[in-house]
Design goal:
Length: 299
């Protein structure tokens, strides 16, 4: 499905252990767009064409999602660590001729963007994270509301194939549950996009891969994050933090203050949306990201 990506080139790029699906168009500074769960690069369909007016936009499917590869997980979940996912994206951008680039990530893609900025500081010029709080902070501050609202973090990370079996029994109901009540009434996510996300989750390999993503977040990703904290490694690139006015993040956190514990140069802005910011508030998202990524790269 293309939706707003009709003028984009669709590519399958071999980055070593996996193939990553990418959509690209536009001219200007390179800008990588990363999606969240349970979506794909399609989630940027209302925003990417507008950004392509001023940037060379690359919107990818993370490994395990969309039309990208779904390799089997390993014992330590390194296959789906954000470090491995970040390396995929660096290789994608290299193949497209972009040694340095900017990145915006929503949800899971924001966590990959966080890792990109830490592991590849000379590559990432600017970064934006949409409606997330750092993974380590989330797991170290679990309360009842977090456990109820983000119950899928704990459900998907379970072993013994339990989440896979339950999701595979009714993928349509599972995907519907991920969007129900997580958007403002006037800004529902496009039904055609949800149908495409549902179709992807009818493939058991994608279900297994996306569960592995959450297992990595609850294990090896935390190891990497704690090591960074011990070594005092922080995001050096300018960081834009965006949150939805009615999202769980927006209701419960001072996003800018928290991210300042992880990054040196943080600015923040609230979006007129719930969780799915690029799909609920595409005009706002396009304008804010365009302004942020157009700014001169000085501190």
């Amino acid at each position: 499905m293309s939706l707003g990506f009709t003028d984009f080139e669709s590519l399958q790029l071999d980055v070593g252990p996996v193939q990553i699906h990418a959509r690209t168009a536009g001219n200007g500074p390179p800008l990588l767009l990363l999606h969240g769960y349970p979506e794909s690069s399609l989630m940027w369909h209302k925003v990417a064409p507008r950004l392509a007016e001023n940037f060379t936009v690359v919107a990818t499917d993370l490994r395990g999602y969309g039309d990208s590869s779904t390799p089997p997980d390993d014992e330590h979940h390194e296959t789906y660590s954000k470090r491995s996912m970040a390396m995929d994206q660096v290789k994608v951008m290299e193949l497209l001729g972009h040694d340095q680039f900017m990145v915006a990530g929503h949800d899971r893609g924001g966590r990959v963007a966080h890792r990109l900025a830490l592991d590849f500081p000379t590559r990432i010029q600017r970064a934006a994270v949409l409606d997330i709080i750092p993974t380590l902070h989330m797991f170290e501050n679990v309360d009842r509301e977090m456990a109820q609202t983000y119950f899928h973090w704990f459900f998907l990370s379970q072993g013994n194939g339990i989440p896979e079996k339950l999701i595979n029994a009714d993928p349509e109901a599972w995907i519907a549950s991920r969007f129900s009540g997580r958007h403002l009434e006037h800004s529902a996510v496009d039904s055609s996009a949800i149908a495409e996300y549902t179709n992807i989750f009818r493939d058991p390999a994608h279900v297994a891969a996306t569960c592995a993503d959450y297992r990595a977040a609850a294990s090896i990703d935390l190891d990497h994050d704690r090591a960074d904290r011990t070594s005092k490694l922080r995001i050096a690139a300018p960081l834009l933090v965006m949150w939805g006015q009615s999202s769980y993040v927006g209701r419960n956190f001072d996003s800018v203050e928290i991210w300042r514990s992880y990054a040196d140069h943080v600015t923040g802005i609230q979006a007129p949306s719930d969780h799915y910011i690029p799909e609920e508030a595409p005009d706002f998202t396009s304008e804010v990201l365009s302004e942020f990524f157009s700014a001169e790269l000085n501190l």
